[in-house]
Amino acid sequence: MDKEKLETLIKNFKLRNIEVSYFDTLKDAKAEILRIIPADCTIGIGHSSTLQEMNISEVLLERGNIVYDKELGKNKEECKSLKKKALITDWYITGSNAISMDGRIVNVDHSGNRVAAISFGPDNVIIVVGINKVVDSLDEAIKRVKNIASPLNAKRAGYNPPCVTLNRCVDCVSKERVCNSLSIIEGQSNPNRIKLFVVKDNYGF
Ligand code: SF4
Description:
This protein has one domain (3-199): NagB/RpiA/CoA transferase-like (Rossmann fold). The chain is built from eight helices and ten strands. The strands form two sheets. A six-stranded parallel sheet has the order 1-10-7-4-2-3, with helices on both faces. It starts with a helix and ends in a 6-residue tail after the last strand. It is an alpha/beta fold. The structure holds iron/sulfur cluster.
């Protein structure tokens, strides 16, 4: 991302009370997460392959944070319980399916836990994205989440809606539908509740 584009992105999110930080590496973003979150805080994790690549839950647990990450659940009930507990933590860390240059954060969810937490959950939210998630407009962001993120997420999670084979959304009503909640964060009333960490490389989908 060139300097001018980055400055535009930062400015447009700032107008919506969302702070953007730019990192050269995922390692740098991880170090910043560990620096700003106190070791005695509770933390919810929204599933994200970018965060998994960071191994963030394990590192936070090792240093003493209480972490609610559905990936740590041993069965369906435990996973559901972890998702609910993550909604009322001190901090929430997750990824995103798309962000637009004009300052919107767009996500789709299967069960809705992540979009609920981002909208009205913890008082502090960190969203980590690679530059592959940055698109020009809201329209492009929605196209991205439906035609790129959803099929890949469905495949990863073992679901088989039509987009998995077609590689595009056909607005299905399949029982295997993975995009049951579509969320557009257009701004924040609380300045800097959401911190957006943009990393200079491609991560996740
Ligand atoms: S509506 Fe169906 S086809 Fe479209 S992205 Fe969602 S699951 Fe895939």
